[in-house]
Every structure is written in C-alpha cells, then in structure tokens.
Amino acid sequence: MRLLRPRRLVALATAALAVVGLAGAYSYWESYYQHRGFATVAFLPHAQRGQLQTVHFYSPALHDPTGAFRRGILHESGATFVIVPCAAPPALRRALAPVTSIAGRFGCVTVAQTR
Hints:
By secondary structure, this protein is an alpha+beta fold.
C-alpha cells in the first residue's frame, strides 16, 4: 500500500475539517434561529391564551424642557463621568451642557465629565 503524498494528505485533512466546521456552523445557526438564544419555551397544557397590554409610565425627566430635573439628578448622584449614547435626544445634550465638559468622543458616543 502506497502512502498518500503530503499535499494530498493536507488537502484531505483540510476538506474534512471544512465539512465538520460547516456542519457545526449550520447546526448552531439553525438552533439559534429556532430559539433566538433563549431556552426552549415550556408549553403548559392548562395555560390559557394571554393578552397584550400596553402600560405608559410618566417620567418627569422626559417632560423637562429646561433640563433642570436632569441636572438635579446628576448633581445628587455625584457621578464623575456621564456616557451620552448615540440615540440621546438633543434635549439631553442641552441639559447636560452647563454642568459637564466633554472628556472624549468615541464615534457618536460622548463621554462627559461633571464640573
């Protein structure tokens, strides 16, 4: 029996690893697609159908045109740095401007330092 040449042996090992890797990736994707990263939901035979409810909470910080409420929270918390995310409303940036200075920007995320 003749031994396989090194190139053929490497090609065969590479193909085998590629097939095993692709099979594993497909299995992982299929499981993630089915469960979305969560454990399987347990269905109870006696459970009744639920209903969707929407609950609205009032937040004074969201209805603060001058920003005084937000600045008060920031002052009372004693925070040194504030991270302002990309999706922060312009009203939040205006409210923080008098009491913070920009320490750095990372893309659209701003890190502000309290004064």
